[in-house]
TrEMBL record:
Keywords: ANK repeat, Repeat. This is Uncharacterized protein. InterPro entries: Ankyrin_rpt, Ankyrin_rpt-contain_sf. The lineage of its organism: Eukaryota, Metazoa, Ecdysozoa, Arthropoda, Hexapoda. Pfam families: Ank, Ank_2. It comes from Trichogramma kaykai. ANK repeats lie at residues 30-62, 103-135, 175-207, 248-280.
């Protein structure tokens, strides 16, 4: 007999007896249980048998990973997760849904990072705390916005409403970026709109002094995103800081001109962006635009709009 599942069945049936509850969770010299080893090596059938036989899924290995952490690192973990929750319900034994491993990751973090969207939704419905941050201070909402999981963003807020939980829409990671920074970076208007309607503050700056408006103007020439940002920000009482200075003193307008984003630059000028503001090197919008003098359409637009607005340069 060399099938691991058969051997495990025989061991559990004939060898453990009354001491099964203690032996089944025995740890080796590295602090790992049989369940940890089975999950780490993707031996799903063995893990299933151990769980059915009473192995404790809340015990952590030396890396701080519980059974749930390890399962969320697997491919197609749904069947094991279903079994885990069935056992939990049957034994009235709650799971450590929000336990951190040594990397500061919760099970929800891992599910999202491994693109296990259905698992992440399941965890949220089971009560996983979406506001917990990892070592980089990223919450579930940060990861959702980075990964463009639009459906999950809606689900997260829906479940939070049902459970009367507050979502930290303005949580800042180690770099000072909010979920809105990431939504604007990825031109994800759907999620950006959701965040703004949920009260996200568009005036919060990251460590480089950049607000979401900077991000939108530095990465893409997307006027619809800018228009949405202004309209919803004004609706929700937060006014966009049109002339905010970011890294090296660059304003959103100077950024749009620097990257040659004609439509974005025109939109900002018509919203009232000040072309006379200088960066750390003393450059005004005119100086920045002059470096793009090969872009005739950009140059013509710049002077035309400023003339229409009677704006001094």
């Amino acid at each position: 007999m060399n099938h691991p599942k058969a051997l495990m069945k025989l061991l559990l049936k004939n060898c453990l007896g009354k001491r099964q509850s203690k032996l089944i969770d025995a740890q080796d010299k590295e602090g790992k249980t049989a369940l940890h080893l089975a999950l780490a090596h993707c031996r799903k059938k063995v893990a299933r048998l151990l769980l059915k036989s009473g192995a404790d899924p809340n015990l952590a290995n030396p890396e701080g990973s519980t059974a749930l952490h390890l399962i969320c690192k697997m491919n197609r973990p749904n069947a094991l997760l279903k079994l885990l929750f069935e056992i939990s319900d049957k034994k009235n034994q709650p799971f450590s849904l929000d336990a951190w491993d040594k990397e500061g990751k919760t099970v929800l973090h891992l599910a999202l990072e491994n693109r296990l969207k259905d698992v992440a939704e399941w965890l949220l419905r089971k009560g996983a705390d979406s506001n917990l941050a990892d070592k980089e201070r990223s919450t579930a909402l940060h990861i959702i916005c980075k990964m463009r999981f639009n459906h999950l963003a809606n689900i997260l807020f829906q479940i939070s409403d049902e459970k009367h939980r507050h979502v930290l829409v303005d949580a800042q990671d180690d770099e000072g970026n909010t979920p809105l920074h990431f939504a604007m970076c990825h031109v994800n208007r759907e999620v950006a709109r959701l965040l703004l309607r949920r009260g996200a503050n568009p005036t919060l700056a990251n460590k480089d002094g950049e607000i979401p408006l900077h991000i939108a103007c530095f990465w893409y020439n997307d006027v619809e995103s800018l228009r949405m940002l202004f309209e919803l920000s004004n609706d929700k009482y937060h006014s966009v800081q049109l002339n905010a200075k970011g890294k090296r003193g660059m304003t959103p307008l100077n950024g749009a001109l620097y990257f040659g984003y004609e439509e974005a630059a025109e939109f900002l000028l018509r919203q009232g962006a000040d072309p006379q503001l200088t960066d750390e090197l003393g450059n005004t919008a005119l100086h920045v635009m002059s470096k793009n003098s090969h872009n005739k359409d950009l140059v013509e637009m710049f002077f035309k709009v400023n003339d229409e607005l009677n704006q001094q340069l």
